[in-house]
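3.2 Worked example (two chains)
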Amino acid sequence: MILTILIFDYIENNLNIKIKKELTNCIYYFIYNPIIYIENFFKNIKDVFILNKKLININDNLNKKIISDKINKLEYENCKKENIELKKILNINILKKYKYNISKILYYNHVFSRLIIDKGIDENIHIGQPVLNYDGIIGYISLSNKNNSYVNLIYKSKSKISLKNSRNGIIFIAKGSGINGILLCKNFNIILNNTDDFKEGDLLVSSGLDDLYPKNYPVGYISKIIKNKNNYYLDIEIKTLFNINNINYIVILK
């Protein structure tokens, strides 16, 4: 700083006006230009941060819009799927013969092969009522509360259903396996029943003999047949027609 003052003093006292002016300008530029440069540098940094913040805000808004659009699309697809499902339910022929309730599935317990639905005693839902959808028989009401009910699925362990082979009229009992979508008929006695006329793919319907499910409503198809070594017995595996993972609504017959 002292050196700068001495330089300006020397210029003032010893040089002519023109040289003095030019030299003063040069020295001034040399001394103050770095300061201006530094100021501009920090100003540019500040502008960059401001711009970056604006870009972040714009990006956040775009992400929110993208997420919102995806949610709206998903909700639309779900509504579309549910509408298709409800239309199929309303076209079930058997509903012309029965009074019924349509209920939404709230929860599926795969361990106990059980559903929780959104209707209960207030909607006249009671224990023992059969439950089905447009694909086939699903199960029956096992417990009814004020505003919800439990449905035991037909493949729940130890459950039973009387079936009829739609191809030849053979009637037999199948039990729930506890495995998703699988019923079993073990040790079907060929000699006692005087037939072994079962084929993989045979459509099975309810016989109506159990006084629980409506007669001749689809249940499943034979997926596997195992003949025991002595050839006197058959083990029959049945796959249900409905897939519980694709169902949102069920029908309760009154």
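3.2.1 Second chain
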Amino acid sequence: MIIDENLQMATDMQSPQISTYHNVASLLEDEPLMALIPMKEAISKASSIFFAPKIRKSGEEGKAELSSRLKDVAKHISTGTIFFFLPVVGIGESEANVALIEKVSGLKIMEDFHYAYAPFFPGETRPSVFGSSLQTFDKSKKSLLGLVGVNTSEVCSVAIAEQYYAKLVTQRLSHIAAELEAYKRINDPYDRMKFKKLADYSDTYPDDFANGLHDLRVFATSLDSGEPLLHIISGVTRCLEDYVRYLVGTIRDVIKTNELRASKTRVILAWSIDRYSMRGEKMNMQENILHRLRDLVNDVMVIQAVQDRNEQSSKFAGQIFSENKGTVIISCSVNDQRSIDHMMPTANAKIDTIVVKGNLLCEVSD
């Protein structure tokens, strides 16, 4: 079952027709007829619950929104339930979640239900770490963990899982931040290529790190002022947030260097975002980029690749180019860049087009 928090209804996802859809967006677009049952009934009958709400706020507002969603679900759980908590929490904050579940459900941890913390690093399909109040598993529970890619030998305590995930995210994004800072300071093309080779560079786009900013902000709210880890997280966050200014500055230079007139230029942001993701930081960054781009030119648009069920590749739909304007296209993910590469050979040769890879190098090609 999957629950729509707004409708307070659950949908049976085991229907054979569901398997024909590759994502939630295509499923909702077709609006197939499916059996619905009240959320309360679905939760009370469930032996396991995967709590993965969409959170679109950050800081204290985000915490309040998450607590409200947790209350709505927890008050209906039954004895014997395993509660899988997927959103990111700050270090030491799972205790408050467990206490809230106990309060609204009337159940006791370890005696009546079990709690598991299973955060997913943005873009990955299995938990980065799995912390649980339950440490021994029978055959059915092992099978359940196997469905989400977890081996029982990898299970740790919830407290250890909190520490490990904070370390993992901070480490990965620190690496990206360090590379970004280096490329911002190296202007000579030859030196950039030399550094790129030394750094064993792999294409990293905002799609790869934007949602990680949400996680860093969550960690920061759980740390006391003056803690070394807070200083590290704050520095990495500021660096990655500054990517928007860096990208828009590159576009400004492209327009100036190519002597493009603002009134005769269209800027296209190619970023295919999953609107149903738990985290909303990609959408926030996209809006920030669009806002700043509109300070340069009036004609700014977003395009999103659409994947045909019968094809492996994704394509952009609709009219993108204008014969009366020069076009600057910015790719914000590896997949969007592939879609651009696929599209460009078919573009009208009369249309002046410049492609900017929105990676850490902000590479320009025309």
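3.3 Remarks
The longest helix spans residues 158-185.
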